[in-house]
Amino acid sequence: MPASVPLPAAAAEARPDLRPLRRGLWACLAALVLTLVAMFSTGLLPEDGFGALLREPAGKLGLLVVLLLVARGGSLRERFRLRPVSGRALGIAAACGALSLPISQALAALTMLPLAMLGARFDPGPTYAALQHPLGLLWGVALVLFGVAVEELFFRGYLLSRFEALGRSFAVVASAILFATAHINWLMFPWGLVLGGYTALLTLRSNSVVPALVAHGAGNTVGIVLGAFPSLQRALSRALTVPGEATPWVLSGSLVILTLSALALAWLLRAFGRAVPAAPAPQPGTPPPATGPVLAGALLRSAALWSYAALLIALNLLVTLQIFRR
To answer: Potential cystine with 192: which of 49, 180, 203, 295 (Cβ 3.0-4.6 Å)?
Structure first.
């Protein structure tokens, strides 16, 4: 009977490295806790004007603190994928970001109007009166872009890059879910999932976080510029959150807008793939991607994930009670 041939040590010991997953989840938990502290500390700011504008970057201070901690050591360019990309690719990324507005508004209508018909009441939010001044508008855009930069460097530059070692599909899905839940409002989850998903694809395809920065920044800039027109913002908020005779038309129109925007976004992502070089092949000796059972076991054993989920559930229960008690 022939003797069995022993496997090489490298092959026998090859297994996925789960440390990036654990570190990423603990980083998300720390960022969430610090973000909540920053947001509650801004509760004394005015509800309108610059006070409302300051809440946007204040909510990102938790992410900024965690970014500064994980940025220690090594090259920032490599650690956060700060690599240059062609102007054509950046133009396509900006067009993807511009589609965020119709997609987000359509998702808002499809999410909020049915709930409003069941008795939920939504706060239309501040009208940002300070934005009506030209300097106020520039300041508002600068504050929003600060938040965009912090979010993209954390979720796409840091988190996505760490999760990529466990498999690209897992990295896209996991980073998009964590990005969507980090907004601490389940009403924003569909929009966050879409935005987190396509910016992750832009980052992996170009091997750079810069296109994601441009796309996210373009979308948010369009939104903040619209905030300079209070009458338009109030009319839009009312149409999306207050049921009336036009509700069936708003819902059907939102479905059409969402479908057309999704098709346009898919076309732009294909065009983006042709505008950037092919992604580099994995380096020799790279640990293999983790399988589904291995990832599921690691997630179920993660104290950081359970703590993160418990905190989010509690916060979103408060959000739900608030919208049905107004």
So the answer is: 180
Instruction: Count CB neighbours of 170 within 10 A.
Output: 17
Which value, in Å, is the radius of gyration of the alpha carbons in the chain? Answer: 22
How do residues 242-252 score in pLDDT, each as one tens digit? 787 778 888 89
| Helices and strands, number each (H, E), in the chain | 16, 0
Degrees, nearest 5: CA angle 16-156-179: 95
Using one digit for the tens of pLDDT, what is the confidence trace for 257-294? 999 999 999 999 999 999 998 766 666 656 667 777 88
Q: How far are the Cα atoms of 213, 234, 260 from residue 140, in angstroms, in the given order?
A: 17, 18, 30
Domain assignment present for 224: yes
Task: Give the Cα separation of 106 and 114 in Å (integer).
Answer: 13
What residue numbers bound the domain in which 97 lies?
Answer: 18-66+84-278+294-325
Split into its structural domains, the chain has a count of 1
Q: Is the pLDDT of residue 196 over 50?
A: yes
What six digits make up the tokens of 299? Answer: 């997630």
78 inside domain: no
pLDDT per residue as tens digits for the range 8-17: 444 434 566 7
- What DSSP string describes 41-92? HTTTS-SSTHHHHHHHHHTTHHHHHHHHHHTSSS-HHHHTT-----HHHHHH
The 3-state secondary structure of 139-190, one letter per residue: HHHHHHHHHHHHHHHHHHHHHHHHHHHHCHHHHHHHHHHHHHHCCCCHHHHH
Query: Identity (one letter) of the amino acid at 19?
Result: R
Q: Establish if 179 belongs to a structural domain.
A: yes
213 with 149: CB under 8 angstroms?
Answer: yes
Cα–Cα distance, 83 to 101 (Å, whole number): 27
Is 77 domain-assigned? no
Give CA–CA dist 283/281, Å, rounded. Answer: 6
